[in-house]
Structure formats: C-alpha cells, structure tokens
Amino acid sequence: MDKQYFSVAFLEAKKAFEQDEVPIGAVIVKDGNILASAHNQKEKDCCCTSHAEILAIQQASSKLHNWRLEDCDLYVTLDPCPMCASAIKQARIRNVYSCLNNNDFHNLELIQSIFQTDSVNPEVHFESNLEVQKGKEILSEFFKKQRKR
C-alpha cells in the first residue's frame, strides 16, 4: 500500500463534491502507475451504477484492453458498496485500500464476504479506515452543504 494514491482519490472526490455528487473518488494502480481515476457521477449520468469504483474499473479495463485487472490495486475514499465490491471481485483486483468505512456493519459484512475466495476468483485483500479524518471531512462538508439546500 502506498498512501500517496489517496491524494489522487481525494482530488477525484473533490471533483464529485463540486458537481454535487457524493464525494467519493477511486484510483486503480498497477506496478506503481495510475491506470485510472474516477469519481461518482450518478447524478450527472442519471445512472445508479456510475460509482467511482465502477467508472475506474471501466477506464482501467479499457486502457489494458482486458477486463482482468490482476495485480492491480484500488484506492478509494469510502468503503465500496456491495455492487462495487462485486465488480472489484469480478475484475480480479488484488487489493482494496479504503480511507473510511461507512459505519454500516451490514455493508462491511457483505463486502468482506464478497471479497473472500470463491471457486472462480481469488480473494481480494481489503483494508479500511486508512485516512479516517480526511474521509470524514469531505463527506461531512458535502452533507452539511446538502442540508442547507
């Protein structure tokens, strides 16, 4: 894990914030090189699957001309939801590093279950709460802004 990639993820989260999207950013790295970076675009795209992780997976797959993102690591500003965790697992991403969990035990339980080894895909190594303060700050600021509307 290299925390420098969180700074790129937070730049993406800031873009989402500025576009009135929930400020979540994701970065996919392979061999020390950033393959993709993305932020939530659900409102812009009018699409429930336009999460930062999904968009980053699409970009990285396109760049590598391969849906298998083996030996890739994903850095994200908030723990993935079950939909994103499933996409991460299917893409065969090796490691997921998250700044902050979302305080939903059920979500954590689900993603840990999804990330376990199954008969087709290897286990996804997952670490959370690696940049808690910074993660909380941008989310708190965003939801404070939303409540004022």
Provide the fold topology.
Layout: H1 4-18, E1 25-30, E2 33-39, H2 42-45, H3 52-64, E3 72-76, H4 82-91, E4 95-98, H5 105-114, E5 125-127, H6 132-148
Helix pairs in contact: 4-5
What characteristics describe this protein?
5-stranded mixed β-sheet; single chain; globular; alpha/beta; 149 residues; 5 strands
In short:
By secondary structure, the protein is α/β, with parallel strands linked by helices.
Question: Could you characterize the architecture of this molecule?
Answer:
- The structure is a single chain.
- With 149 residues, this protein is of the alpha/beta class.
- Helices cover 46% and strands 17% of the residues.
- It is built from six helices and five strands.
- Helix 4 packs parallel to helix 5 (105-114).
- The model has no long low-confidence stretch (mean pLDDT 94).
